[in-house]
Write a structure and sequence with these properties.
By secondary structure, the protein is an all-alpha fold. The chain folds into 2 domains: 25-49 and 121-197; 54-117 and 205-211, no CATH class. The chain is 84% helix and 0% strand. The chain is rod-shaped. The mean pLDDT is 81.
Length: 216
């Protein structure tokens, strides 16, 4: 049992040492990776929470509105922490107004809630483009360094002089692409689940408006 653990520790140390040999550009890339992971986890939890709502919520709202119990409907909305509840709350507050006014009020709240859901998603898109560019910059710097050392070596050409710069170049490129691809996948995944939540919000708001008694 001890041997596999030792091998695993050696592999981790080896990976860390490889990363450090990528040069100073590894620092901003690792920071971008950490921030991207934080944003992804935080946004995923927020979006998934926004998409969860008690199936009984709309049934109770409709029942309260049908019986003219506006205050109970407002209290239910305010005690439910979700974008859908905040949209419906605005619709309840506007009850008695024309359908156009109610729709407009709900849409305004909906736009604000969608903005909150999409907030910081652009950061992941930026990382997906910036990380590979930093990696390619590291490639250029590494190659310049390698050929500079080679030029200064004169007749005493040592393959290790060229290998060191190429090593640095390849490490930064690989890490940059890894971070970029990961951020791109994370961004598109979050965009997809945001679209599902937005569809649910639109569907629920239309259901609420259709359930309101017609104004005579």
């Amino acid at each position: 049992m001890i041997l596999p653990q030792v091998q695993q520790t050696e592999e981790i140390v080896s990976i860390v040492s490889i990363l450090f040999k990528g040069g100073w550009l590894m620092i901003p890339m690792i920071l971008l990776a950490i921030m991207a992971v934080y944003v992804f986890v935080e946004k995923m939890m927020t979006i998934k929470k926004a998409g969860k709502i008690d199936p009984e919520f709309m049934l109770n709202i409709k029942d309260f509105m049908f019986n003219g119990n506006i205050e109970s409907a407002k209290n239910l909305c305010r005690n439910t922490d979700s974008p859908i509840a905040r949209m419906i709350d605005k619709g309840v507050q506007k009850s008695g107004k024309s359908p156009d006014e109610i729709t407009s009020a709900i849409e305004n709240v909906g736009k604000l809630e969608v903005y909150k859901l999409e907030k910081r998603l652009g950061f992941l898109a930026t990382v997906s483009g910036a990380a590979p560019m930093l990696g390619f910059l590291g490639t250029v710097i590494g190659m310049i360094k390698a050929f500079f050392e080679l030029a200064n070596a004169g007749n005493n050409i040592d393959p290790s002089l060229l290998a060191g710069g190429i090593y640095e170049a390849l490490v930064t490129t690989a890490v940059g692409l890894f971070i970029g691809i990961g951020s791109y996948i994370a961004y598109n995944y979050l965009v997809a689940i945001v679209e599902k939540v937005v569809f649910m919000m639109e569907n629920t708001s239309l259901d609420f408006i259709d359930s309101l008694p017609e104004k005579h």
